[in-house]
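Here is one record:
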Amino acid sequence: MMAPRTPAQEKRLTDLAVAESVDVHCHCLPGLDDGPATVTEAIALCQTLVDDGITTVFATPHQLGRYDGANSASRIRQAVAALAVTLSEHGLPLTVLCGADARLDERLIALIESGQVLTLGDSRRYQLLELPHEVYVNPLRILVDLKDRGMRAIITHPERHFHVQRDPRCVLPWLEQGAVLQLTAGSLLGDFGPLAQRIAWGLLKSGWAAVVATDAHNPELRPPRMSAAIAAIASRISFPLARQVCGDNPLRILQGRDVLTPMDTLIPA
């Protein structure tokens, strides 16, 4: 049985009026990628998630790219199951679900269909998609193929990609094909430099970014930062937008429902 929720978690649920406080992108599994190296480090990271009000986290280690062949779907599922047991033993009230931060790859559709690349929660509804850092590859073809199969790509931290930084309007064709833009909470707070911060706020104010996630890797250098991001969005734009991109839309992803589009619902003209 899971431990009772903490006051920080209960406050988050009350403040955002959601049934679960969901983080859709987090590197919390030990020894799989550039997240925690050990179980002890993974527990420490999960403690910071709980302290930051998160109740459910998708464990999304890297797949493909430089981790091609390293993190199989079965290895990720086993690591999630083991971490869930460990968290229960330590009394941490955090639900951990399967997922992957998959690097853009021409084989992606085939690998999803064969079960080798994990969608969020194994639902085949939402797929985290990371653009290559070294070169620009237009993801449009993959986005269309995902859409044709009833799936939607969640493009992770576009504000940190050089091509988006150079031309933020390049995301518009992606959005037309159902892509969801996910900002990193720390980007909004300047953790990745002033350019990423400016682009993140621009994407948010334009209504093009629909989800904020932690993309947390460790408690010190890459902590969750969701509470601070919620406060910043509420202060600089509006609390309803903070609730939507940090609370409601992540919950909708967990539930397999369509995310709401900020530019259609909450961004003033």
In short: The two ends are 48 Å apart (CA to CA). Residues 164 and 171 are 7 Å apart (CA to CA). The longest strand covers residues 22-26.
